[in-house]
C-alpha cells in the first residue's frame, strides 16, 4: 500500500485515527498533544477539517502524517508505516500493516553548524517550506542554548527547535536536554532593578524590546513552561501582559504560578491580539509611557 492508497483509506477517518493514536479526547473534542497538560482548558483544541489538523493555541498545523512525526519523533517513512498499520493493509514489501512496526533505537544526529541543522529541517519538511524566523535562547552569560525556527509554506506555519550540545559544540534537532532559559535572559539577569514584562511569543517580546521594555517569554508557549528555568523571574517586579483570549490568560496563569505576586497589564486590543498588535496601531509619541499609565490605572482599580 503506497501513500495514495493510505490516503484513500484515511478518507473521513481522521477522528477515528486520533483516538487510535491515543490523542486525549474531552467529549467531542481532541486536546492538542503538544500543548500544556495541566488540566482541562489548558490544551488547545484540535480542529479537524478533512485531512487538515490545526491547534489554535500552539499553532500546530499539518495533516495526520505530520502529527505522527511530531508525536512519535519519527521520519516520514516510519510515520507512513505506523499510519498504514492503523488503517490496515500492506506496505510495498508485503509486510502486514496491522503488524506493529519494529521499534528502532533513536540515534541523535549532530550537525557541525547551525546552517547544517537548518538545512536538515528543511529537508525533513519538504519542498515549499522556508525558515522565516530564528529566535535565540541564551543563558545569563550569553552562551547559546537553543534556537526556535519558524517555517512557512505560504499557507501553514510550524516551529522546529534546534539545540546546541555544550559538550561538543554541535547542533541537533530537538529541545535542549537541560531545558530552556527564559527568552532574553542576559538582559533580564543584567538589569535587576528593571521591571520585566512577560508576553507570549518571541515576536511579541521583540516588539516590546524595540520600544525599550525589558521583555521575556518561554519557548513553545504554555507547554514549554515546564521545560524552562523560571528562577530568574523570582523576587522580581514582573508584569504579565497576556494575549486577549482564553489561551493567553491560561498561559499567564501558568507563568504566575512560578512567581511571587506578579501584576497584570491587559491591553485594549481585539480578540486574540497582543502587545505587537497594540504597538502597530499606536499613534502617540511615547508608547512606554502610555503602557505604564495604563498599568498604574489598572492597579489603582485593583485589576488582576
Structure description:
The chain has a five-stranded antiparallel beta sheet, covered by helices on one side. The chain starts with a helix and ends with a helix. The protein has helices at residues 3-10, 14-20, 64-72, 76-87, 114-125, 185-189, 202-210, 246-256, 275-281, 287-300; strands at 25-26, 29-30, 46-49, 52-55, 61-62, 110-111, 130-138, 144-152, 157-165, 170-173, 196-198, 214-216, 238-240, 263-264. The protein is an alpha+beta fold and 304 residues long. A hairpin with a 4-residue loop joins strand 9 and strand 10. It contains ten helices and 14 strands. It has three domains: 3-87, DNA Primase, Chain A (Alpha-Beta Complex); 110-173; 185-300, Dna Topoisomerase Vi A Subunit, Chain: A, domain 2, CATH 3.40.1360. Helix 1 (3-10) packs across helix 4 (76-87) and helix 3 crosses helix 4 (76-87).
Topology:
Layout: H1 3-10, H2 14-20, E1 25-26, E2 29-30, E3 46-49, E4 52-55, E5 61-62, H3 64-72, H4 76-87, E6 110-111, H5 114-125, E7 130-138, E8 144-152, E9 157-165, E10 170-173, H6 185-189, E11 196-198, H7 202-210, E12 214-216, E13 238-240, H8 246-256, E14 263-264, H9 275-281, H10 287-300
Parallel strand pairs: 11-12, 11-13, 13-14
Antiparallel strand pairs: 1-2, 3-4, 4-5, 6-10, 7-8, 8-9, 9-10
Helix pairs in contact: 1-4, 3-4
Strand tally, please? 14
Q: In what order do the strands lie side by side in the largest sheet?
A: 6-10-9-8-7
Distance between the termini: 57 Å
CATH architecture of the largest domain: 3-Layer(aba) Sandwich
**Helical coverage, percent range:** 25-40%
Domains, number: 3
Summed up, the helix count is: 10
Please provide the ordered H/E string of secondary-structure elements: HHEEEEEHHEHEEEEHEHEEHEHH
Largest sheet: 5 strands, antiparallel
Basic shape: globular
Assembly context of the chains: single chain
- At CATH level 3, the topology of the largest domain is Dna Topoisomerase Vi A Subunit, Chain: A, domain 2
* Spans of at least 5 consecutive residues with low confidence: 36-42, 89-103
Rg result: 21 Å
- SS-based structural class? alpha+beta
Amino acid at each position: 500500500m503506497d501513500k495514495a492508497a493510505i490516503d484513500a483509506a484515511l478518507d473521513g477517518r481522521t477522528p477515528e485515527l486520533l483516538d487510535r493514536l491515543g490523542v486525549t479526547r474531552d467529549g467531542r473534542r481532541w486536546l492538542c498533544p503538544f500543548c500544556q497538560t495541566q488540566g482541562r482548558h489548558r490544551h488547545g483544541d484540535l480542529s479537524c477539517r478533512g485531512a487538515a489538523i490545526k491547534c489554535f493555541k500552539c499553532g500546530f498545523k499539518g495533516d495526520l502524517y505530520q502529527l505522527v512525526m511530531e508525536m512519535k519523533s519519527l521520519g516520514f517513512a516510519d510515520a507512513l508505516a505506523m499510519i498504514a498499520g492503523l488503517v490496515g493493509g500492506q506496505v510495498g514489501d508485503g509486510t502486514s500493516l496491522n503488524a506493529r512496526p519494529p521499534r528502532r533505537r533513536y540515534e541523535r544526529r549532530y550537525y557541525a553548524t547551525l546552517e547544517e541543522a537548518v538545512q536538515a529541517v528543511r529537508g525533513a519538511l519538504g519542498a515549499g517550506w522556508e525558515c522565516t524566523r530564528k529566535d535565540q535562547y541564551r543563558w545569563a552569560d550569553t552562551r547559546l542554548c537553543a534556537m526556535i525556527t519558524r517555517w512557512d509554506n505560504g499557507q501553514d506555519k510550524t516551529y522546529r527547535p534546534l539545540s546546541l550540545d555544550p559538550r561538543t559544540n554541535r547542533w541537533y534537532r530537538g529541545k535542549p536536554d537541560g531545558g530552556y532559559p527564559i527568552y532574553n535572559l542576559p538582559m533580564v539577569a543584567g538589569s535587576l532593578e528593571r521591571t520585566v514584562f512577560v508576553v507570549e511569543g518571541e515576536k511579541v517580546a521583540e516588539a516590546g524590546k524595540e520600544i525599550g521594555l525589558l521583555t521575556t517569554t518561554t519557548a513553545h508557549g504554555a507547554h514549554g513552561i515546564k521545560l524552562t528555568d523560571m528562577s530568574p523571574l523570582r523576587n522580581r517586579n514582573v508584569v504579565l501582559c497576556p494575549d486577549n483570549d482564553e489561551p493567553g490568560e491560561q498561559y499567564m496563569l501558568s507563568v504566575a504560578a512560578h512567581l511571587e505576586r506578579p501584576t497584570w497589564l491587559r491591553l485594549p486590543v481585539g480578540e486574540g491580539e497582543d502587545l505587537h498588535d497594540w504597538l502597530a496601531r499606536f499613534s502617540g509619541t511615547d508608547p512606554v509611557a502610555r503602557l505604564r499609565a495604563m498599568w498604574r490605572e489598572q492597579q489603582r482599580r485593583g485589576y488582576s
